[in-house]
């Protein structure tokens, strides 16, 4: 205990040098913490929200855009597809189930999604209050939406056109909240769910004219569309033939979530590699700084070391003093690095509003973060190794003669 106390006082006997070393080491550790947190939360979000969805069928365009808009709800969809075409797909013997998804409106920037109750069941979400809709213009809101917007059962709200705030208000067709979902950690937390017929009603009433006849209405209903369909296969073998069939034989496209997310992560790989390299440079710089500081400390404290040796401290005790000083440095830097990394991740989520999409920015502590303090202690001890060996080998006589 005396060694730990003395080493702590030695560390801060030169506050500027100690502060600089802690800052350099903390920044490197914070960069690594930030990368680990973002990677962990992205992987968790992708695995959670893409689970059980084998392929997404939607309008021709970018397959990745289709996945980002229809599954993760962080992009705009490429267009709509005919409802009749989707119903034809339901007859395909390779298909186990299809969940319709219709986009186009929002309420205070939270998306209103027209779908079926199977969408809620797909994510094993539970109702905290109320019930699932039984007719058009009833809505079930996710836990995050209800909390941030203060929505309660029985409240009415009006959607706005578009997927972002500021669109035309559909004031003639208000929604009524009939259910609130319990937090599930899935994309449903950030969505407002309703029956697909609600989306049709809102937009058909918006585009309809008082002069429209019953025949015009019938034509409109015949030409109804949805945004996309989330498909689950009956057998894994369907992954070979079904997407090819959709892409070549229909006016739609089929996008496999696993394939597109892999492409996305590969595209992001270059940026993360640069950040890792930057963190490595910071750690290397911090290690060299610690090494120089401790080596200088050995030379400056030769009188103190001589006194300790004369009072009975052995060579190992003197070396342990320097090693403990490095351990204190690594411990302080690891705490600051973890806190800074969490702060950077939270700032990213707040700045890009990712907490409304991928839940990046929340305070999480994955087991992988245990690497950070181990890395901090390893760099500190490695930097202190040579100075400690030097202090161990110096004799009492040489220490006294240097005074």
Automatic annotation (TrEMBL):
The way this protein sits in the membrane is described as:
Multi-pass membrane protein
Q: Which domain of life is it from?
A: Bacteria
Its annotated compartments are: Cell membrane
Q: Which GO terms describe its molecular function?
A: transmembrane transporter activity
Q: Which Pfam families match?
A: FtsX, MacB_PCD
Cellular component (GO) terms are: plasma membrane
**Where do the MacB-like periplasmic core domain residues begin and end?**
19-201
Every ABC3 transporter permease C-terminal domain range: 277-394
Lipoprotein as UniProt keyword: no
User: What's in the keyword line of the UniProt record?
Assistant: Cell membrane, Membrane, Transmembrane, Transmembrane helix
Where do transmembrane segments lie in this chain?
20-40, 277-298, 318-351, 371-394
List the InterPro entries hit by this protein, alphabetically.
ABC3_permease_C (IPR003838), MacB_PCD (IPR025857), Macrolide_Exporter_MacB (IPR050250)
* Family to which this protein belongs: Belongs to the ABC-4 integral membrane protein family.
- The identity of this protein, by name, is FtsX-like permease family protein
Native species of this protein? Rhodoferax aquaticus
């Amino acid at each position: 205990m005396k060694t730990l106390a003395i080493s702590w006082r030695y560390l801060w006997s030169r506050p500027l040098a100690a502060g600089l070393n802690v800052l350099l080491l903390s920044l490197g550790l914070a960069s690594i913490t930030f990368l680990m947190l973002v990677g962990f939360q992205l992987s968790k979000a992708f695995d959670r929200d893409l689970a059980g969805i084998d392929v997404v069928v939607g309008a021709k365009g970018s397959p990745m855009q289709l996945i980002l808009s229809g599954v993760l709800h962080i992009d705009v969809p490429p267009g709509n597809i005919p409802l009749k075409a989707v119903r034809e797909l339901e007859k395909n013997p390779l298909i186990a189930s299809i969940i319709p998804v219709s986009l186009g409106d929002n309420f205070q920037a939270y998306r209103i999604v027209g779908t079926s109750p199977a969408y809620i069941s797909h994510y094993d979400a539970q109702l905290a209050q109320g019930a699932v809709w039984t007719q058009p213009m009833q809505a079930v809101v996710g836990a995050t939406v209800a909390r941030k917007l203060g929505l309660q059962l029985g409240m009415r709200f009006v959607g706005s056109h578009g997927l972002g705030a500021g669109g035309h208000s559909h004031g003639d067709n208000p929604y009524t909240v009939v259910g609130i979902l319990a937090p599930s950690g899935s994309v449903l937390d950030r969505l407002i769910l309703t029956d697909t017929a609600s989306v049709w009603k809102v937009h058909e009433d918006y585009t309809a004219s008082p002069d429209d006849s019953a025949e015009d209405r019938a034509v409109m209903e015949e030409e109804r569309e949805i945004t996309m369909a989330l498909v689950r296969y009956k057998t894994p073998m369907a992954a070979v033939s079904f997407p090819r069939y959709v892409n070549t034989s229909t006016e739609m496209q089929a996008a496999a979530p696993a394939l597109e997310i892999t492409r996305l992560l590969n595209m992001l790989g270059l940026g993360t590699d640069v950040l890792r390299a930057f963190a490595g440079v910071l750690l290397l710089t911090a290690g060299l700084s610690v090494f120089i500081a401790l080596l200088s400390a050995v030379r400056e404290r030769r009188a103190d070391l001589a006194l300790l040796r004369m009072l009975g401290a052995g060579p190992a005790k003197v070396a342990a003093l320097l090693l403990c000083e490095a351990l204190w440095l690594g411990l302080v830097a690891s705490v600051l690095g973890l806190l800074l990394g969490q702060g950077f991740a939270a700032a990213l989520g707040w700045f890009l509003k990712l907490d409304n999409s991928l839940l990046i920015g929340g305070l999480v502590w994955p087991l992988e973060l245990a690497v950070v303090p181990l890395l901090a202690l390893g760099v500190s001890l490695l930097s202190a190794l040579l100075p400690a060996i030097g202090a161990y080998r110096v004799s009492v006589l040489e220490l006294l003669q240097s005074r």
